[in-house]
Amino acid sequence: MNFKPGWLLLLTISAGVWSVPIERNGGNQEPKEEAPEENMDTGLYYDRYLREVIEVLETDPHFREKLQTANTEDIKNGRLSKELDLVSHHVRTRLDELKRQEVSRLRMLLKAKLDSTNTQSLQMDHASLLKQFEHLDPHNQNTFEAKDLELLISTATKDLENYDAERHEEFKRYEMLKEHERREYLKGLDQEKREKEEKRLQELKDKHRQHPKVNVPGSVAQLREVWEETDGLDPQEFNPKTFFKLHDTNEDGVLDEQELEALFTKELEKVYDPKNEEDDMMEMEEERLRMREHVMKNVDTNKDRLVSLEEFLKSTEKKEFNNPKEWETLDTNPVYTEEELQRFEAELRDKEEELKRRAETLRQEQELLKERGKALEAQRREYQQAVLEMSQRQKEQQAADGQPPAGPNGELQFQAQTQKPDDKEAKAPAEPEVQNNLPAEPPQNLPLHT
């Protein structure tokens, strides 16, 4: 798609402002097939929502036609948002669906945040909580209206403008932390080792500074170098218009921030090499950002974060284009002062003390828990001993009273009695005599009487 610079105010947000990797290949190369353009993540928490809204709006012929005549100011001040009422029904339906999905996602984020802070809120007011998100209208959570488009554009523009400042601040803190760690490391060494290490570190610094001259970004010398070494063209035939079209890689009629940063690769190669110990790649990315900002400041006259062909050609007519001042790299222009470093170190000390206090509090609580655990274990043992002693006393009392011994739970225990050995030798009782009432038989062999 070919977009006008005004609409690219949004697309530049979704195109990304991140760094371009350095390639150390030779100058003359055979043309390669154009790879599909990658959408770089902007880092905005609503990046996906922004992309999808842009893609859906671009499918509407009426809205696309209005973009052809719109300028950057029309987009920024919200006038273009009024055209949303005239887009087709299926586009509005799709935008409504995207907004509902975004609201649902934000609700999940809010719930996760509340859960992580152990905040119990059974009656959560989502409408009030959604007000903290500025890229959509929280009062209307179901349909995508003109106000939503206006809020999305203004919020994304503001966030992107603040992003560079945040990156500079983050880099400053990185550099101060690096210097702080260097000083602390040297303090821990003895005199001889400290002097030796300081000498080594100074040699690395000096080696880093011994690089070829860096051309001012956007100057004729810098562009001619790209023309010759990257494009493989005769430097004597340098033509700004042809140069612009060569590096407008997506052929949209403007150079966005990513396309501009690609122009600085040769200059960065003079100063930074990932294989060298003395070269810091974080510094290289900061240098790239500074170069891009320098070009935007001097070339981007309408401040839409894009360089049109007209703006580019006008910049080549300026005196600074042919006779620029010398470019000062980061190694000659420190990003922090000694006072800022001292304040930063004071903050680190305060944080360290706070962490120590928390660690001590946790240690004391751990010791207290151990002591309580020991006390509970001693009580458990005393209780077991008391139970055993009471059981023993019950058994002794029952034995004294002639009662059967009791079991562990107090139940009576009966034992089967065994027969004594003497009983086996006892005589069996005499059987009772059976009386016979029948007459006795007469004696035999008696004389017979006649």
From TrEMBL:
Supply the Pfam families for this chain.
Answer: EF-hand_7, NUCB1_N
Q: Which domain of life is it from?
A: Eukaryota
Q: Which GO cellular component terms are attached?
A: endoplasmic reticulum-Golgi intermediate compartment; extracellular exosome; Golgi apparatus
Give GO MF terms, alphabetically: calcium ion binding; DNA binding; guanyl-nucleotide exchange factor activity
Q: Which InterPro entries match?
A: EF-hand-dom_pair, EF_Hand_1_Ca_BS, EF_hand_dom, NUCB1_N, Nucleobindin
Name the PROSITE patterns on file: EF_HAND_1 (PS00018), EF_HAND_2 (PS50222)
Region (Disordered) residue ranges read: 387-450
Q: Which residues form the EF-hand domain?
A: 235-270, 287-322
The UniProt keywords, alphabetically, are:
Calcium, Coiled coil, Cytoplasm, DNA-binding, Golgi apparatus, Guanine-nucleotide releasing factor, Membrane, Metal-binding, Phosphoprotein, Repeat, Secreted, Signal
**Tagged with keyword Secreted:** yes
Residue runs in coiled coils = 146-207
- The residue ranges flagged as biased composition, category Pro residues, are 440-450
Bilayer topology reads:
Peripheral membrane protein
Please tell me whether the keyword DNA-binding is annotated for this protein. yes
Localization recorded for this chain is:
Cytoplasm; Golgi apparatus, cis-Golgi network membrane; Secreted
Q: Where is the signal peptide?
A: 1-19
Q: Where is the composition biased (Basic and acidic residues)?
A: 420-430
**What assembly does the database describe for this protein?**
Interacts (via GBA motif) with guanine nucleotide-binding protein G(i) alpha subunits GNAI1, GNAI2 and GNAI3 with higher affinity for GNAI1 and GNAI3 than for GNAI2. Preferentially interacts with inactive rather than active GNAI3. Interaction with GNAI3 is inhibited when NUCB1 binds calcium, probably due to a conformational change which renders the GBA motif inaccessible.
Which family does the record assign? Belongs to the nucleobindin family.
* Protein task: Major calcium-binding protein of the Golgi which may have a role in calcium homeostasis. Acts as a non-receptor guanine nucleotide exchange factor which binds to and activates alpha subunits of guanine nucleotide-binding proteins (G proteins).
Name of the protein described by the UniProt record? Nucleobindin-1
